[in-house]
Request: fold
Amino acid sequence: MKNQTALNPTFWSGVINYVRASAQPAEELTPWDFREQIEKKTVLVFSTSIAGITEQLMVTSRLNALVGEKNWTIDLEDVDHVLRVVCPKSAESKIISIFEDQAEHCELMS
Reply:
């Protein structure tokens, strides 16, 4: 009788994913790489006090590091200066603290 594990496609897809993940250099991994596999991403919408590009530049590098460059936008023309972020729900408090560290207002909209 053959080993059933060796014939199981789920087993091999897990092995392939493990090899792919371990092949990435450590500097390419962000803190969210492993959490994303566990937590589902959602769109969080915040009201902010960011009024212009100058204020936006003060939070850009930290938001990029936390959620990724293409995972957030700030609508400077909206009355509420709306920030939209694609991330796990658990990132909410970290996003708010990024703004508070720059003396800016950031509040989750319901």
